[in-house]
Amino acid sequence: MSRLHDMGGRIGDGAVNPADDTPYTQDWQGRALALTMATEELGTWSIDSSRHAGERLIPHDYMNFSYFEKWLASLADLLVARGLVSEAELRRGAAAGVSGLADRMLKPGDVGAMAASGAPSERSLKAPARFANGERVRTRRPARNILVDQGHTRLPSYAAGCVGEVVNCHGAHVLPDSNAHDLGEAAEPLYSVRFAARELWGRAENPDDAVTLDLWESYLEPEAGA
Question: Where is this region: Disordered (predicted)?
Answer without folding.
Answer: 1-23
